[in-house]
Amino acid sequence: MTNTDLTPFNLAEINVADDSNAFHKLQYGALQRARALELPSFEEEVWRYTQINDLDLSKYSIGAPGGEMQARGLTADVVDAAAVLEVVNGEVVTSQINDPNVSIFTELDDENVASGVGSVMTDAVDIFAEYNHALSTSPLVIRIARNSVVEKPIVIRHATSETDFAWFPRVVVIAEENSEATILEHQVSTDVEALICPVTEITAGQSARLKYLTVQELGPRVWQLASQISDIGRDAHVAVSHVAFGGGYARARIDTRMVGSGATGDIGAVYFGRKDTTLDFRTFQKHDAPHTNSNLLFKGAVDDRSRAIYTGMIRIEPDASDVVAYQTNRNLKLSDEAWAESVPNLEIENNDVKCSHASAVGPVDADQRFYLESRGVPSEVAEALVVRGFFAEVLEDFPIPSIGIKTLERISELLSLEGVSL
Amino acid sequence: MVKLVVEGLEASVGGKQILRGINLEVSSGQVHAVMGPNGAGKSTLSNVIMGRPGYVATAGSVSIDGTDVLSLPTWERAQLGLFLAMQYPTEVPGVSIRDTLSLALTSRGISSENVVGRLLDEALAIGLNPELLDRSLNVDLSGGEKKRNETAQLAVLQPSIAILDELDSGLDIDALKACAERIEALTKNQLGVLCITHYHRLLDYLPADTVHILVDGKIVESAGPELAVELEAEGYSRFLPDKQDANDGVSVAIGGLSLLKPSLVDEDPFADPMA
Ligand SMILES: Nc1ncnc2c1ncn2[C@@H]1O[C@H](COP(=O)(O)OP(=O)(O)OP(=O)(O)O)[C@@H](O)[C@H]1O
Ligand SMILES: [Mg+2]
């Protein structure tokens, strides 16, 4: 394939060579690189088990047509926010700040945008991240002021309602030294054919405390190829959590890097696949500094014909001593046709570490179901209760309690437990 | 008046035959104790009656008032009036005892309106810390707390026949007394009990009408409560097949109660001692 043959999104015709500002320069460089890249293949390890070879970029057009914010789904009740940012089909339609310690930059010619975008993901992790670099029309750069505590969540909504459309949400969060904040990002779409390639970059300065929760409720014909990358500084604590329900193929690559001594990263996910959804998670816990911790817990269920993929890597660099790192992935297989794969990995270059990984794919525990049945709870309800309980355990202390409750309610609905008073 | 009838019950676990023809009848208000050495098949009996996955009845029958139990799913057995207090109650993360009992009652068509209050009363009556009622079922409970939890559930669900699989194991003496007396009170209210135990002390508070000795998948003897006292003093040795390498210090047969035919014992230690 030659460069000129590769013309998804009419890349050959796009001209971002305007170098009037730093952000455009950055986009131009990325565009040059993107033109030289080929789409990945499932033969590559990081794309193994996926249907990536079925992705046909030619059917999507790009742009920023904007539109109305439609369903707010699971996050509808979160109204009391430190800031609200709503981005519809590539255009920022709401940008509202209610807390003076939060600054938000969205203008493409703003120097905060130019310096923020690409500050953590200096090299795109894959072609889709490179496209995001080159083509994002709606970067959101969020700064949390030094020594401040932002009590209420910052709410971001990325909504898609255009069909045959591709776009590239970008969020950059900079939690300055000793700041504290919680961010809720909602990814939602109507039932459209769309390709969404989000990139999220998180920097936590010294002693910062940041929670970043992503809720994914995309339509069944959406391809989403997301990457999230966090650099956690000295004594800082970042907790990233993912709730995923939808999408045709929804992938999240999650890189968490403990770069400062004493850094802690918590990585969590709750996912529930139905119908023909494929949920694909690739996690990388990278310990660059000593005295760092990371703790990953992913729990999922696959129902109907859905598929879930989890592959994870813990990497501990030679200089990183006194490290504790955990990685746990558990999957419940709720139907015969559902499928899940779980592949944990460790790469350890230092002896002074404590690591463990565990993974499981299996049906609902027969003894647990039997216990409930032996009290007179009908089989189907007993099974649903066990599944709900499997998730309740992690959702009970979720970063934003109301979202934990909503997520559990949604799971109860999916398990046909909505008529059951709990 | 409800009657649980077990007739000629044979069962296997993992393809291995464990029960070799059990006959038992438990009626409302009665307490039947089942005692026997480790591995004899006592829990297998309770699991087969309740329908635990993996425990397969291969012959015989179990019925309640003439209704065949073995063809029913577990939850229907429970709704028919059976209850199993498990030897090792299963941990069910994320599912509370309150939710379980509300659902257990509502799916019987019984209002669960005051289930919380009743559970609380039962918990207090047997010394179960009410805070534990909000926890996930059996998760991080001590052995004794699990048994009290089983007892509280039994008392709320009010089954007609309860199988207690070593309810006493893990209970301290106060808890044992509280749980056993609570169940004893229920038997006055027509509860029938099949009580599996190793120790006589449980039967001090929950007096048995009949004591059965289960050895190697068969009931080898049934007698009045004095049998439990004797067993505690003498052990099961006289019911066990005489093994060549057994400790010689153990006396094998006492009195005229032995049903073993000495001629068979030496030939085949796995032979049916009742044959
Ligand atoms: N799930 C199982 N898988 C394999 N073997 C089993 C299983 N359950 C029971 N067994 C076997 O069946 C036999 C009887 O076990 P059972 O638990 O019924 O004994 P028990 O009389 O209750 O003993 P204890 O006094 O120790 O509770 C034993 O040999 C045991 O190893
Ligand atoms: Mg037992």
Notes on the protein architecture:
The complex is a heterodimer of chains A (422) and B (275). Chain A is α/β, with parallel strands linked by helices and 422 residues long. Chain A is 16% helix and 40% strand. Chain A contains six helices and 21 strands. Chain A has helices at 22-36, 111-116, 127-135, 366-373, 379-395, 401-414; strands at 83-88, 91-97, 102-105, 139-144, 154-160, 165-167, 170-175, 180-189, 194-196, 199-204, 209-217, 222-232, 237-244, 249-258, 264-273, 278-287, 293-302, 307-316, 323-333, 339-348, 353-362. In chain A, the strands form two sheets. In chain A, strands 3, 4, 6, 7, 9, 10, 12, 14, 16, 18 and 20 form an eleven-stranded mixed β-sheet that branches. A ten-stranded mixed β-sheet of chain A has the order 2-1-5-8-11-13-15-17-19-21, covered by helices on one side. In chain A, strand 1 (83-88) and strand 2 (91-97) form a beta hairpin. Mean pLDDT of chain A is 93; it is low at 1-6. Chain B is of the alpha/beta class and 275 residues long. In chain B, 45% of the residues are buried. A six-stranded mixed β-sheet of chain B has the order 6-9-10-3-11-12, sandwiched between helices. Helix content of chain B is 32%, strand content 27%. Chain B has helices at residues 42-50, 74-79, 97-106, 115-125, 143-157, 173-188, 200-205, 226-234, 262-267; strands at residues 3-13, 16-27, 31-35, 55-64, 67-68, 82-85, 92-96, 136-137, 161-165, 192-196, 210-215, 218-223. The radius of gyration of chain B is 19 Å and the shape is globular. The chains are: A alpha/beta (422), B alpha/beta (275). Chain A binds chain B through residues 366-368, 370-379, 381-382, 385-386, 388-393, 396, 420-422, and chain B through 50-54, 73-75, 78-79, 83-84, 86, 89-95, 99-108, 112, 136-138, 153, 157. The structure holds adenosine-5'-triphosphate and magnesium ion. Adenosine-5'-triphosphate (ATP) binds at residues 13-14, 18, 36, 38-44, 54, 87 of chain B.
